[in-house]
């Protein structure tokens, strides 16, 4: 089991997300929950495709954190 960081952003009418450690691995959905589910599926398909093509599967390396600022 690997744990990849995802980034989900609110778009005008939906949510869009990507996986920093897997370039090209993206998904969009109507809700945050749908987008996260679709990203999980996209990661599985993406990794399977890399393996089928004999390419290395990148290890998770992105770090996710929050910082507080006074705005």
How would you characterize this protein structure?
The chain is an alpha+beta fold and 71 residues long. The protein has a 3-stranded antiparallel beta sheet, covered by helices on one side. It is flat and about 45 Å long. Strand 2 and strand 3 form a beta hairpin. The protein has 1 helix and 3 strands; from the N terminus they run E-E-E-H. 14% of the residues are buried. The chain has a domain of 46 residues. It starts with 6 loop residues before the first strand and ends in a 19-residue tail after the last helix. The mean pLDDT is 97.
The percent range for helix content is 25-40%
Shape: flat
Strands in their spatial order, largest beta sheet: 1-2-3
The residue ranges in which pLDDT falls below 50 over 5 or more consecutive positions are none
Biggest pleated-sheet summary:
3 strands, antiparallel
Alpha-carbon distance between the termini? 39 Å
Assign the structural class, choosing from mainly alpha, mainly beta, alpha/beta, alpha+beta, or little secondary structure. Answer: alpha+beta
User: How large, in whole angstroms, is the Cα Rg?
Assistant: 14 Å
Determine the mean pLDDT.
97
Q: How large a portion of the residues is in β-strands, by DSSP E?
A: 15-25%
Topology order in helix (H) and strand (E) letters: EEEH
Tally of alpha and pi helices? 1
How many β strands by DSSP?
A: 3
């Amino acid at each position: 089991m690997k744990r990849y960081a995802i980034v989900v952003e609110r778009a005008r009418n939906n949510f869009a997300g990507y996986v920093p450690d897997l370039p090209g691995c993206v998904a969009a959905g109507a809700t945050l929950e749908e987008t996260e589910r679709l990203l999980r599926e996209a990661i599985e398909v993406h990794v399977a495709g890399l393996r089928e093509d004999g390419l290395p599967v990148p290890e998770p390396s992105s770090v996710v954190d929050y910082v507080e600022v006074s705005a």
